[in-house]
Amino acid sequence: MSEPDSVSPAKRSPASRYRHALVLLTARDLRVRYSTSALGYLWSILDPLVMAGIYWFVFSVVFDRDGRIGEQPYIVFLLVALLPWMWFTGAVSDSTRAFLKDAKLVRSTSIPRTIWVNRIVASKGIEFAAALPVLAVFAIVNNAGVGVEALYFPLAMVIQAALTIGVGMLVAPLVVFFRDLERATKLALRFLFYASPIVYGTSDLPEQLHFWAAFNPLSGIFSLYRAAFFPGQLDLFLVGVSAAMSLLFLAVGLIVFRRCERAVLKEL
């Protein structure tokens, strides 16, 4: 009797073929990214570590604002938001080239074209997961306690994946028609970094801005991540709005993607 893995591609279900192709493309992305790099995996953690070090130095040393921005230990407070931010911004930024980079494969494949966005989100998500041990080391060294709220981590990842896929589905086809959108997306991400509770917490904002901060879907997502080490950062209102907006982005992204798909193939 043959093994399940020996089933020919033609006999697989469409969902099975999609999953198989997604695994292959995601693995290819990771191999290409690190095969020519001497440091390999370390590059996935060096960027957030350097950024966290800079902001820790600025806010904890230069301006001596320990305890007045975020929570202590501040380096853990920073990293627990910076790592998922790197996943989000990396995936959205790369999605602007999702079709243009592999135009020949996009035209020739019969697999649903959503895979060209999903494999980017998946590979960046794997990098995020691979960097979590570094966060754990910093938490241990700085005596940051972990509470039962750490169980919210998978929920935060699911909501973030939905949001990231939705935004990726929006920008990927539109960039094919409007090339300037690629640079506009990078500018928007730069603005979003400072508009998101990364170097600060939502509770650090003026009271009149708390309500409006909820409509940044990353606010609730970072609230869930931070709750693992800082239970006081959990805000269920933020989480609820973030979940609703992430699902909305996912739905709108899929609609735009489907409507633009044929025109994209003609344009490539």
From TrEMBL:
<dbReference type="GO" id="GO:0140359">
    <property type="term" value="F:ABC-type transporter activity"/>
</dbReference>
<comment type="similarity">
    <text>Belongs to the ABC-2 integral membrane protein family.</text>
</comment>
<dbReference type="Pfam" id="PF01061">
    <property type="entry name" value="ABC2_membrane"/>
</dbReference>
<feature type="domain" description="ABC transmembrane type-2">
    <location>
        <begin position="39"/>
        <end position="260"/>
    </location>
</feature>
<keyword id="KW-0472">Membrane</keyword>
<protein>
    <recommendedName>
        <fullName>Transport permease protein</fullName>
    </recommendedName>
</protein>
<dbReference type="InterPro" id="IPR000412">
    <property type="entry name" value="ABC_2_transport"/>
</dbReference>
<dbReference type="InterPro" id="IPR013525">
    <property type="entry name" value="ABC2_TM"/>
</dbReference>
<feature type="transmembrane region" description="Helical">
    <location>
        <begin position="153"/>
        <end position="178"/>
    </location>
</feature>
<keyword id="KW-0762">Sugar transport</keyword>
<feature type="transmembrane region" description="Helical">
    <location>
        <begin position="74"/>
        <end position="100"/>
    </location>
</feature>
<dbReference type="GO" id="GO:0015920">
    <property type="term" value="P:lipopolysaccharide transport"/>
</dbReference>
<keyword id="KW-0813">Transport</keyword>
<feature type="transmembrane region" description="Helical">
    <location>
        <begin position="121"/>
        <end position="141"/>
    </location>
</feature>
<keyword id="KW-0812">Transmembrane</keyword>
<dbReference type="GO" id="GO:0046677">
    <property type="term" value="P:response to antibiotic"/>
</dbReference>
<keyword id="KW-0046">Antibiotic resistance</keyword>
<keyword id="KW-0972">Capsule biogenesis/degradation</keyword>
<feature type="transmembrane region" description="Helical">
    <location>
        <begin position="187"/>
        <end position="203"/>
    </location>
</feature>
<keyword id="KW-1133">Transmembrane helix</keyword>
<dbReference type="InterPro" id="IPR047817">
    <property type="entry name" value="ABC2_TM_bact-type"/>
</dbReference>
<feature type="transmembrane region" description="Helical">
    <location>
        <begin position="38"/>
        <end position="62"/>
    </location>
</feature>
<dbReference type="GO" id="GO:0043190">
    <property type="term" value="C:ATP-binding cassette (ABC) transporter complex"/>
</dbReference>
<feature type="transmembrane region" description="Helical">
    <location>
        <begin position="236"/>
        <end position="257"/>
    </location>
</feature>
<keyword id="KW-1003">Cell membrane</keyword>
